[in-house]
Amino acid sequence: MPVLAPSAPRPGSRSATATPEGRRLRVVPDRGDRVFVTVMRLGAVGVVGVIALVGIFLAVRAYPALAVAKLRFLTTQQWEPYTHHFGIAGVGIDTLLIALVAVVISIPVSLGLSLFIAEVAPQRLARILTTLVDLMAAVPSVVYAIWGFEFLEVRAIGVSRFLSTWFGWIPFLHVNGGGANGVGGETIYTASTFIVGLVVSLMVIPIQCSVMREGFTNAPLAEREGAYALGATRWGMIRSIVLPFGKGEVIGGTMLGLGRALGETLAIYLIISPVFRINWHILETGGNSISALIALRAPDADPFETSALMAAGLALFLTTLAVNFGASAIVNRSRSRSTR
Rounded to the nearest 5°, which phi and psi values hold at 63? Predict the structure, then answer.
């Protein structure tokens, strides 16, 4: 364990750790502490090094394609590497749309579930629900993908038709040939961005719920009791104390879920009907994502197309990295404020 060793004070110095005799106490870590700190530092440096190596590898492998496409790589919707006419505009926008649909669906569920576990449910039920949420996070992506493809897709067609019929006046919910007076059949609603986003939302709910629940449960007990003492109801206490205190965790959990949704592959690959264009109509068949594009094209790609796929992977890597770093910064800043 650490040893407190006296050390002579410097001339003219004032220290909060000075003893009545005027001596300062200096913490001398023992061998176990030094080994622990060294191992933790090496682990942190190793994680950062692996991330940096992944980025360097993608950048080096993507350079031949980026040297040909240049800035057109970000604005071209088609994917035709054989004619040097390729880009991620179409799949990139669809990737964002799928992630946004997943986050919009998952936020109310995660927020309500985390508040129920932290503030409403009895302790035994809260432990059971916490375990179930953690188990949902451990379910492999392929299980969600197969379940969405075999079970959810057919049953979500009615929801898509309802949204198109009654809210088709909203541009992104309009379906060409659908709606109340449309002639399109059920196939016009299958393999859509909305259905894929619904499946992906189930994957990100455990992440968001865990982060939000931690923020809500750490709300100060004194302020909770003070709100009750002033006559606040349970909802009034939650609205005035718990939600403001956990605001950083809500934002951070949402962004972490967004980062998870951006990198999802199997569900998109199995469910969606791939197209290489921007499809703003999320209820309509067709869409794509960068990760699904890589999974679809990589097995039969020649060296140049492999380089183009590496460039697409680099764009997704940088986007996901930025989202996750932003979420971590928000959560850490919120926690630092709460401990003051």
Answer: -60, -45
C-alpha 61/C-alpha 116 separation (Å) is: 48
Residues 191, 208: Cα–Cα separation, whole Å: 26
Q: Hey, what CATH class is 75-338 in?
A: mainly alpha
Q: Where are the chain's structural domains?
A: 75-338
pLDDT digits (tens, 9 = 90+) for 214-273: 889 988 889 999 999 999 999 999 999 999 988 888 988 898 899 889 988 888 989 988
- Helix (H) or strand (E) segment spanning residue 27: strand 24-28
Other Cβ atoms less than 10 A from the Cβ of 300: the count is 7
φ/ψ region of 80 (left if φ > 0, alpha if ψ in -120 to 50, else beta) reads: beta
pTM over 0.90: no
Determine the straight-line distance between the first and last CA of the chain, rounded to whole angstroms. 28
Residue 179 has what DSSP assignment?
A: S
Alpha helical stretches, state H, the chain: 31-69, 89-115, 123-138, 141-147, 153-167, 193-217, 221-229, 234-237, 243-245, 247-262, 266-271, 290-297, 303-338
Kindly give, in sequence order, each residue whose CB lies less than 8 Å from that of residue 15, ignoring residues fewer than 6 positions away: 9, 24
- Written as six digits, the tokens of 291 are 């990760």
- SS3 sequence of 247-308: HHHHHHHHHHHHHHHHCCCHHHHHHCCECCCCCCCCCCECECCHHHHHHHHHHHCCHHHHHH
Place of tokens 């198109």: 164
Tell me phi and psi for residue 181, to 5 degrees.
-105, 10
Give the span between the Cα atoms of 156 and 149, in whole angstroms.
11
